[in-house]
Task: structure prediction
Amino acid sequence: MKHRYLPITEQDQKEMLETIGISSMEEMFSDIPQQVRFQGELQVGNALSEQGLLRYMRELAGRNADFQRYASFLGAGIYDHHLPVVINHVISRSEFYTAYTPYQPEISQGELQAIFEFQSYICELTGMAVANASMYDGATALAEAGALASGATKRSRLLVSRAVHPEARAVLRTSARGLNLDVVEIAVTPEGVTDLGDLASKLESDAAAVILQSPNFFGCLEDIAAVEPLAHGAGALLVVSANPLTLGLLEAPGKLGADIVVGDCQPLGIPAALGGPSCGYFAVAESWMRRMPGRIVGQTVDRDGKRGFVLTLQAREQHIRREKATSNICSNQALLALCASVYLSTMGKQGIQDVGTLNVRKAHYAANRLAASGLELPFKGSYFNEFAVKLPDGTNIEELNRQLLHKGFIGGYDLGRDYPELASHMLIAVTEQRTREDIDAFAAALEELV
Result:
C-alpha cells in the first residue's frame, strides 16, 4: 500500500499566513535575533523532483546487501527466515498499522483480539501460564525479567551466563545500574555452555535470578533441567531466553521449571530489515503475573454474554505514573506481535515443527560439510541452526566477510568481537532458506579464502 504526501502550495502558504495575521515567513521568525540566525545556505543538495528523488533513494537502497541478492549465513540474533506473503497483506491494513494503545475496548476489539491471540501462542510455545502483549525486543525483555526477579525475591544479584547474547547482557547491565542491582557473569565451559560449577559457587543468599539463553549465543543448547534445582535451591528465579522457533521441537522451558521465559519474535515472520524493529515476548508462571511489565489482554464477556477483550490485571496508572509502575517500559510492539501471530497461524503446529526440522537438518549438513573441508567445530554439544567454526589462527574475519560478499555471501559473525578467547571463530547460521547449493558454494568459498 503506497501513499503520496504532497507539500503545501504557494496559495496554501499565503492563506495560512493571512490567517495568523502576518505577510511573510520572514515576519514569522522576526522575534529571533539576527545574530543567532544561520547565515548562508545549508550544505545540502538541490531539490529533486518526485521521480528524481525515488530514483536516488532506489540507488541508495541498492547499496545494501539484502537477502534477495545474497545468501546469508549471518545470525547472532537476527535471522533470514521465510516470510509468508500473507503477513505483509494483513499488517498493511490501516486499522492495524495506525492502532494506538487499546485503552478503549469498545473501539479496539480487533487490536485486542490480535494481542490476545499472540499471548495465547506464546503461552503454548513456552509452557507458561501468562504472557504479556509484547516488549520492544528480546534484550529489553531479558532486562525486565531481571527487574521482576529482583522485585519478587527482594534480592539484588542477577547471575547471567556469559553465553547469553552480548547485547542482551549489555542492556541488562544498563537496566540493573538504574535499579541498584549487581550483575554477576557465569563462566562458559570449553564446550560452549554455562559452567554449572561456577554457577553453584556464585549462588548465594542474595541471588535474585539465574539467567540463561538456550540455544545460547554460540548456538549450543543449555541443560535447563540441570540448572533448575540449583537456582530454586538457592531461592532464585530461573529466567530462560529462548528463540521461539526452536520451541516447535525442543521441550518448553516452562515444563523444565523456568519461572520467566523471554525472547525475540524476529524468527516468527518479522523481517530482518536493518536489525529492527522487532518484538520481544515475556511469559511467566502464574505466581508472577501481577508483576509483569507492559500490558496484558484478557478475555471476558459483555452484558449480553458476547465474547470480548480488555486490558486486564493492571490499572492505567501502570503506564502513566512512574512511581506506581512495576516497570517503566510500557509500550508493546503490537504490529510486530501481529506479524508473529499471522506467521504462527499460517504455519500451524505441524508447520512450525517442519520449519524447525529443516533448520536443524540444514545446519547439521553445513557443519559436516565445513568439517569435511578441514575446519574445526569447537563446541561438540547439540545445536539448532547456528554453530561456531574455528578458522586458522590470525584470520581477519572482517576482511574474510568482505571477500565473501564479493562472492555473493553474507558471512558469519566474528565471535572475537565479544569473546577475545574466541578470536578467529565465526558463528554461522543456516536457516530453512539456505539450499544445498548455497551451503556447498559457501563451503567452497571458505575453503578457497582461508
Remarks:
- The CA atoms of residues 99 and 111 lie 7 Å apart.
- The domain at 71-84+348-449 is CATH 3.90.1150.10 (Aspartate Aminotransferase, domain 1).
